[in-house]
Amino acid sequence: MIALFVGTWAYLLLVVVAYEVFDASPQAVRWAFVPALGLVAAGGWLQFSARCPGCDRRIGLQSRLVVPDRCRACGVALRARRRAAGGGKHPARRAT
Q1: Which residue has the higher pLDDT, 61 or 38?
Q2: What is the DSSP string of 74-86?
Q3: How many CB atoms lie under 10 A from the CB of residue 12?
Q4: Helix axis angle, 26-49 to 2-21, nearest 10°
Q5: How far is CA 3 from the centre of its chain?
Q6: Phi then psi for 77, rounded to 5 degrees?
Q7: What's the rounded Cα separation, in Å, for the pair 66 and 56?
Q8: Which long-range CB contacts under 8 A does 75-82 form with residues at least 24 apart?
Q9: Pseudo-torsion of CA 66, 72, 74, 80, nearest 10°?
Q10: How far apart are CA 16 and CA 93, in angstroms?
Q11: Is this model's pTM higher than 0.90 or not?
């Protein structure tokens, strides 16, 4: 979700730079905002379509741009807790 948010802003910045620096026509800039609206709509759909697996309530308004740790309604864990420092995805290799 965060990648979609950053990508949308990068695209909008690119449109503004194209308009200012390369002197793009206003009509071309208007048409360039159509994909941006699509990206915003996709982000909104992703944010508000997420549901809690425990109580089936929508969790879109419980946090911004990320899935919350727990559902506010039923308290079920929605994300695994991060491991302690040094315990990343892959176990440390043993010295031989």
Answers
A1: 38
A2: T--B-SPPPPPTT
A3: 16
A4: 170
A5: 5
A6: -70, 130
A7: 18
A8: 76/52, 78/52, 78/53
A9: 30
A10: 48
A11: no
* Residue (of 95, 94, 66) closest to 82 by Cα position: 66
- For residue 76 the two structure tokens come to 């079920």
Domain extents in the chain: 2-49
The tokens for 17 are: 């730079």
Three-state DSSP at 51 gives: strand
Q: Are 67 and 78 in contact (CB under 8 A)?
A: yes
Six-digit token pair at 58? Answer: 């929508």
Q: Residue 21, Cβ neighbours under 10 Å: how many?
A: 8
Residue 67 scores a pLDDT above 80: no
pLDDT score for 83: 56
